Amino acid sequence: MSTVTLTIGPKSYPVACADGEEAHIEALGAMIAEKYALLGAARAPLEAQNLLFAALFLADELAEARKGKPGKAKTSPEGSAEADCLRAEIARLEAELVAARQAPPPPPTPQADLFGGAAPSAALAERLEALAEQAEATAAALEGLG
């Protein structure tokens, strides 16, 4: 059995834990201390109330994570794999977008725009728009994991 001392707010708390679990307990204590610090000047007069509010912040993040909603909760190893997949998808879509932009322009069509130039192919414009929307949606999903 080991003992770790956690400092949360102005107080320190000794916590018993199994050997080898010290770093994990310290990391959990740091999370609580971070949420405690969010109270700022709104701290309650009783320390137990302040710790309760810090615990409520953490419980809220946990509830959001369990619902599957992106929030500020840290990702699990599965979340890291999902983030890697999303990053790879973003890279693929960005490469496809670059290739589409570098492709030779389509042959001119008889239709002209308001300024007298040839109008771009509607199919190309729609494809580029679809690629841009996919990239934005994937980036938003990735940001939600962070």
From TrEMBL:
GO biological process per UniProt: cell division
Swiss-Prot/TrEMBL keywords: Cell cycle, Cell division, Coiled coil
Coiled coil (UniProt feature): 83-145
Tagged with keyword Endoplasmic reticulum: no
Transmembrane segment boundaries: none
Name of the protein in question: Cell division protein ZapA
Organism: Erythrobacter fulvus
Source organism phylogeny: Bacteria, Pseudomonadati, Pseudomonadota, Alphaproteobacteria, Sphingomonadales
